[in-house]
UniProtKB/TrEMBL annotation:
Belongs to the pirin family. Residues 147-234 form the Quercetin 2,3-dioxygenase C-terminal cupin domain. This is Pirin family protein. Residues 15-120 form the Pirin N-terminal domain. It comes from Belliella marina. InterPro entries: Pirin, Pirin_N_dom, Quercetinase_C, RmlC-like_jellyroll, RmlC_Cupin_sf.
Length: 237
C-alpha cells in the first residue's frame, strides 16, 4: 500500500480578489514538483468566485473537466450551444476532445459561488467534444456512497473518457464505509474532505484535506463527525 497526505493548509493558493482558489495539485502560477498529479487526476481546484464575476471564454482540448458546485449558482456557456446554470446537487462534465470554448460566471450579484473544478486526463484523444449536466438526489448519499462519475454512459451520474469513478457521501458521526476499487490492479483512490472529519488507515483527515492511496483492493472509511466527502478513483499510470 502506498499513501500520500495533502493537508488543507499546504495547498497552493491564488487570490485575485474576485477569485480565491486553493490548488491540491500544481496549477497556473502554483508549481510544486511533488504535487503534479495523482495518476490521471491533474487538477482539483477549490474555487470561490464573487458575485457577477467569473472566467471569460477560453479554450480547452483533450481533457475531461468535471465541475461540482458546492454553494451558489454557476452560469455556463460554450460553443457547443449550451447555456445553463449549475448549482449544489448538480454535476457537470465537459469532454474537451478536439477543442471547446466556454465561460463560467457567478450567476448572482450578491453571493459567492463555490465549486470544485477537476481535470482528468482522458484515455482517448481528439474525441468529439461533449457536455453533460445532471441533478442528483443528495439523499442517496446519506451514510452511503453515491456514484457521480464513471466510464459507463449507462451508469448513474455523468460519464467520462477514462477508467475513473467518483463517489460522494454524507456520513453521520461514527459511520463506517468500505469502498471496493473497480480496478485495483491499476487504480488508486484520492479522498477529499469537504467538511467534517474521517479516519483512513489510522490517518485523521479534516476539512479540505486530501489523502491518496494505491496498491490496495479496498478502502475503509470511518467518520469522526458529520462529514461530507468526495472519493475519486483513477488510473495511476
Amino acid at each position: 500500500m502506498n499513501t500520500i497526505l495533502h493537508k488543507a493548509d499546504t495547498r497552493g493558493e491564488a487570490n485575485f480578489g474576485w477569485l480565491h482558489s486553493r490548488h491540491s495539485f500544481s496549477f497556473a502560477n502554483y508549481y510544486n514538483p511533488e504535487r503534479l498529479n495523482f495518476g490521471v487526476l491533474l487538477v482539483l481546484n477549490d474555487d470561490s468566485v464573487s458575485g457577477n464575476m467569473g472566467f471569460g471564454t477560453h479554450p480547452h482540448s483533450d481533457m475531461e473537466i468535471i465541475s461540482i458546485p458546492l454553494e451558489g449558482d454557476l452560469k455556463h456557456k460554450d460553443n457547443m450551444g449550451n447555456e445553463t446554470v449549475i448549482k449544489s446537487g448538480d454535476i457537470q462534465v465537459m469532454s474537451a476532445g478536439t477543442g471547446v470554448m466556454h465561460s463560467e460566471y457567478n450567476n448572482n450579484p450578491d453571493r459567492v459561488v463555490k465549486f470544485l473544478q477537476i481535470w482528468v486526463l482522458p484515455n482517448k484523444k481528439k474525441v468529439k467534444p461533449r457536455y453533460q449536466q445532471i441533478t442528483l438526489n443528495e439523499n442517496d448519499r446519506r451514510n452511503k456512497l453515491q456514484q457521480i462519475v464513471s466510464p459507463n454512459p449507462n451508469d448513474p451520474g455523468v460519464w467520462i473518457h477514462q477508467n475513473a469513478w467518483f463517489n460522494m457521501a454524507t456520513l453521520e458521526s461514527g459511520k463506517e464505509l468500505s469502498y471496493q476499487l473497480n480496478d485495483p490492479g491499476s487504480n488508486g483512490v484520492y479522498v477529499f474532505i469537504l467538511k467534517g472529519g474521517i479516519t483512513i488507515n489510522g490517518e485523521a483527515l479534516t476539512n479540505r484535506d486530501g489523502y491518496g492511496v494505491w496498491n490496495i483492493d479496498q478502502l475503509i472509511i470511518k467518520s469522526d463527525s458529520e462529514t461530507e466527502l468526495l472519493l475519486i478513483e483513477v488510473p495511476m499510470n
